[in-house]
Specification:
2 domains; about 325 residues; 15 helices; alpha/beta; D-Maltodextrin-Binding Protein, domain 2; 6-stranded mixed β-sheet; 11 strands; 5-stranded mixed β-sheet
């Protein structure tokens, strides 16, 4: 009987260690993200148990400051980085290897520049205090807007702060303009100003994604696959149960469901089918690579990054392909 009990215990331990097909039970990962509507599906996947169903123990680490998040990612204190594609370019250019495996959204008005009522054109930002975070997506959008009217960063008074702080500073009347995102664009418009310009006027500039540190992908490909599978399931659930899903995602962000739904007017949340179209195939690469290349060229030309990386090296499309066969 002792032999039988010992054998049974060994089998049980083996089963617990395996958990699911090819994945250790409760494989942990830490995902770094700021507060942004595009990343809200992460809360949905966590709250509805899709991560758990795929054998993952996911911690969502919310940090607003981009430099802090980059340092944590470089030091492997977090395993994955939810951020804009152009930021992924700057991270990779800094020598931090990464692999993009999922796209969250494409901004279409969800990012923009708030300005005081008397500032009615981009040209009128000249000489004004503009709050934005250097080396971030907000920086890219601002430079794109300024370049479109023949201005440069030297023509404004730059105030360096996070997008959330920039929005708050604008609402408090401490700066003339702020480059930020929802829900600050709506809040700023309601209180002290208006949206001077946004990604509606500059489509294709900003899209958000999730990358894993390349070392994590190498060591734990089964966990990365589980993440992609879980996000696929979460977005399918969102389509099937939009009202409940929006409530969950709004709660994760700390805003009302009405506020969350309002932010969706300025971005397109990407489901699995959107991701496959965005990534494309090896024979026909999708828009993802164009967005990455545009950001690479833009930052390199402005000497913000020291060298250009091959954008194909930043993407790991095989996990999306595998998810489709499950």
């Amino acid at each position: 009987m002792k032999k039988v009990s010992l054998t049974s215990m060994v089998v049980l331990l083996l089963l617990l260690s395996v958990g699911g097909p090819g994945l250790a039970a409760g494989k942990s990962m830490v995902i770094s993200l700021p507060t942004w509507s595009g990343y809200a599906p992460l809360y949905l996947a966590q709250e509805k148990g899709f991560f758990t169903e795929h054998g993952l123990d996911v911690e969502l680490s919310v940090t607003q400051d981009l430099s802090t998040r980059k340092q944590a990612f470089a030091g492997k204190k977090v395993d994955a980085l939810a951020t804009a594609l152009d930021v992924q370019v700057t991270v990779a250019a800094a020598g931090i290897p990464l692999k993009i495996v999922w796209a969250f959204d494409d901004s279409f008005g969800g990012d923009g520049i708030l300005a005081k009522p008397e500032i009615q054109s981009i040209e009128e930002l000249k000489g004004k205090q503009v709050a934005f975070l250097r080396g971030s997506t907000s920086h890219l959008l601002l430079l794109t807007a300024l370049t479109s009217v023949g201005l440069t960063e030297k023509d404004i008074t730059a105030v360096n702060m996070t997008a959330g702080d920039a929005g708050a500073a604008f609402v408090a009347g401490r700066v003339d303009a702020a480059v930020t995102w929802e829900p600050w664009l709506s809040k700023g418009s309601e209180v002290t100003g208006h949206v001077l310009t946004s990604t509606k006027e500059f489509p294709g500039v900003i899209a958000d994604s999730l990358s894993f540190h390349a070392d994590y992908v190498k060591k734990h490909p089964e966990a990365v696959q589980a993440f992609v599978n879980a996000m696929k399931d979460a977005m399918e659930y969102w389509h099937a149960h939009p009202e409940e899903s929006n409530q969950i995602m709004a709660a994760g962000m700390g805003i009302s469901p009405e506020e969350f739904v309002a932010t969706l007017a300025g971005l397109k949340l990407m489901d699995y089918e959107d991701n496959t179209a965005f990534f494309g195939t090896e024979a026909e690469p999708g828009p993802l690579y164009t967005t990455l290349q545009n950001a690479t060229d833009f930052y390199y030309d402005l000497k913000i990054i020291p060298a250009k990386k091959d954008v194909k090296e930043l993407v790991a499309p095989e996990f999306l392909l595998q998810a489709g066969s499950n």
